[in-house]
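Service request form, structural biology core

Requester: graduate student, group of Dr. S.
Request type: structure prediction, single chain
Budget code: on file
Notes: please return the result as structure tokens.

Sequence provided:
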Amino acid sequence: MRRRATPPLKRLWKTLPHGVRAAAHRGAQAALTAATPAMVARVWRRGLPGGEPVTVAGLHGSSIGIGRGARLFAAALRQAGVQTQAQDTGATVQATSDLPPDVAFQPLAAGGVLVSHLNPPELGLWLQRTAARGLKGRRHIGYWAWELAELPAAWNSAFAYVDEVWCPSSFTADALRARAPQTVPVRVVPHPVFMVPRLAPDRLRFGFPQGACVVLAALDLKSTSARKNPLGAIQAFRLAVPEPDGRSLLVCKVSGGGDAPERLAEVQSAVAGRADIRLLREVLGEADMTRLIASADIVLSLHRAEGFGLLPAEALWLGKPVVATAWSGVMDFLDEEAAALAPWTPCPVQDVQAMYTGGWWAEPDLAAAAGHLRRLLTDADARERLGARAAARAAQVFDPVVWTNLVRPLLV
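Core staff response, request fulfilled:
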């Protein structure tokens, strides 16, 4: 097959110095951002009627949390009998699609409600690169998740493009309400975790040793490593199990390493010399990710901040003992009865990946977390009791009837 020739302008562009190309890109992006209000004004106005169909726009092909949230939301609406259509925005906002498509993308019907599972930076890109066509004739609900107590100032302009904002936790809602104009309601609509299937464990699939007590920590390094804190999880396990004991295993499910090689190298260095700490870098589909959680004995999340916390939420739903930092979005569903919570102290945000700047987040008490792990690793009855309380709590906070009764009236 003959290769397609590179267009002359593109060849010329590639000959320019990197700094020149970067400056041109920044200038073009600034021009698009400045033009966004006019783009939106041409096709959309606030206050349009809602109703069906409901279009769920988002990163349906991405394994990151915001993509997972969009898929769960669309599935829950369909289960509730709402006419629902999915729009994948991944290509438009240059997000990696690393999952096989699990929704049928049909030509989109007009009108109804648009629920965009896109935070303001991604929403802005989507509006700019599509001339805001997705808003035309639709009531627009933005579904936003943020992980710190204070919203970035750059998000402020996006309130002009939504009728209201939904968010997964009261923690995120508090940050949004501090910035939202009075004309834009902010509501807590949690992720419909009840849509996660309760799949059977498959320890053979993941090569877990027979009889081992498996602790699972999972994260996307792009989210970022400083916030998700895998080094804290590894250190807590090392404190709980100073030397390999033949009975305990920590599995760190890590994705996004290709985009954050230095952070991946940090994690690899932290597990060096410990055969009882494994890195799992395989890209897993949603069913296999759920099987992985179901196959673990304990789920560990020593995050510094979470907008919601899908990993501990799913673990709770599957009746798994959870050890987690007692702060931010997870506290809508975790409590002292249903989880082993690690205390924390506030500390300044330090994120070399620069996704989070300024403000503060939580530094979990690793010694306390290690104490929880040590007890659960050595006491099967304690694991069983905590798992049972987790399942009972999940049935209460992730009730499908309560979720449906909350959401349906808001779509009218």
